[in-house]
Write a structure and sequence with these properties.
This is Phage integrase N-terminal SAM-like domain-containing protein. Pfam families: Phage_int_SAM_4. The N and C termini lie far apart (about 25 Å). This protein has about 60 residues and is an all-alpha fold. The protein is flat, with a radius of gyration of 13 Å. The chain has two helices and no strands. It has one domain.
Length: about 60
């Protein structure tokens, strides 16, 4: 992500993701609905990665 000097998202933790989403909402004036959509998409990607890497489904 360019926000974190092109750091790969898999190397980022919750703090970095939260800071990025806050930056979008405050600095880039992204609407709350768009931020919520991004959170849903990130959650879906996270679930898929867990399934691929560990062969298990998350029930959340």
């Amino acid at each position: 992500m360019i926000f974190y000097n092109k750091q790969h998202p898999q190397d980022m933790g919750a703090e970095e993701i939260t800071a990025f989403l806050s930056h979008l909402a405050v600095e880039d004036k992204v609407s709350a609905e768009e931020v919520k959509a991004l959170i849903r998409q990130l959650s879906g990607v996270y679930r898929l990665l867990v399934q691929l890497l560990y062969g298990m489904a998350l029930l959340i």
